[in-house]
Design goal:
- The protein contains 4 helices and no strands.
- The protein is elongated and about 60 Å long.
- The chain is mainly α and about 120 residues long.
- The longest helix has about 40 residues.
């Protein structure tokens, strides 16, 4: 049940994350900007490199690049969602949010279960 709640939250936040990258509040860090610029400088070199490979090698290199991009995207989405979770937990620990019967914090449940297993 608890994982279902976090899964639904992740799905909602994932949608929110990809909605509007042109909005004023969209964060673009200096590291992101530098990496984007570096990729733009390298992209033509990448394309030229691919052309030196046989067709089979080109396909394999492109698939590997796509997998790396998918992995990076999944990492970014996970970090984005984790940031929200951390924010909610910070608000809770500051006393600004209250726990209710239907939703308990994962670490409390795990700790509670471990304490009862030991008894």
């Amino acid at each position: 049940m608890l994982n279902d709640v976090w899964l639904k939250i992740a799905q909602f936040l994932g949608t929110l994350n990809g909605e509007n990258v042109k909005r004023e509040s969209y964060v673009r860090t200096p590291e992101y900007e530098a990496a984007l610029e570096a990729w733009k400088e390298t992209e033509q070199e990448w394309e030229a490199f691919l052309e030196t490979l046989p067709a089979e090698g080109q396909e394999k290199a492109e698939k590997m690049k796509e997998r790396l991009e998918d992995f990076a995207s999944a990492q970014e989405k996970r970090a984005y969602i984790q940031g929200y979770v951390d924010c909610v937990q910070a608000l809770y620990h500051m006393g600004l949010l209250k726990e209710n019967e239907g939703l308990k914090w994962a670490e409390k449940l795990e700790l509670h279960q471990e304490v009862h297993k030991g008894k």
